[in-house]
Write a structure and sequence with these properties.
Shape: globular
Strand content: 5-15%
Number of helices: 6
Distance between the termini: 34 Å
Structural class: alpha+beta
CATH topology of the largest domain: Ubiquitin-like (UB roll)
Helix content: 25-40%
Largest sheet: 5 strands, mixed
Strand order of the largest sheet: 2-1-5-3-4
Length: 155
């Protein structure tokens, strides 16, 4: 039996501790916004927040997540500046990678309200968008930074 805190809810699951966090989120909790891309932590499609920090759920087990606060794309508020910026700038093309991108950017903006170009590239360097919408993603990030600054807080 494993207990997880996902999006502010407690789940008691009868699963082995070595089960994948990604597949537990998708298959057992039915939160399908978190995507499977590569399975080895290289693409970022499975990015969630673990205690507020971006993490690749495909490389984590339930034992790794035990006792930690997990947030998926479904748990990020709809009014979050990154979600709002993504909509405003029509960032998504196919949209498959976007939940992971949004979670990565939200974590970055929580760390630094005004990241510089090097910080942005460093955080997104290992995120893969199959459609190549990187210019839209960068525009979305700039808009999210502006929205965050207007609110006078970190994302």
């Amino acid at each position: 039996m494993v207990t997880l805190n996902v999006n502010g809810k407690t789940y008691k699951l009868d699963l082995p501790a070595e089960s994948s966090l990604l597949w537990t989120i998708r298959d057992h909790l039915k939160l399908t916004g978190t995507k499977f891309g590569c399975g080895i932590g290289e693409c970022g499609g499975c990015t969630v927040h673990i205690n507020g920090k971006a993490a690749r759920s495909c490389t984590l087990t339930l034992a790794d997540a035990k006792g930690k606060k997990i947030t998926t794309i479904e748990g990020l508020p709809e009014k979050h500046p990154v979600k709002q910026a993504w909509i405003k700038e029509q960032v998504a093309q196919c949209g498959y990678c976007q939940p992971g991108m949004v979670m990565q950017v939200a974590s970055m903006l929580a760390e630094s309200a005004k990241p510089d170009a090097d910080q942005i590239i460093g955080k997104l360097d290992n995120m893969i968008c199959r459609c190549g919408t990187y210019l839209r993603i960068k525009k979305g990030i700039r808009t999210a930074v502006q929205m965050t600054a207007k609110e006078g807080r970190r994302a």
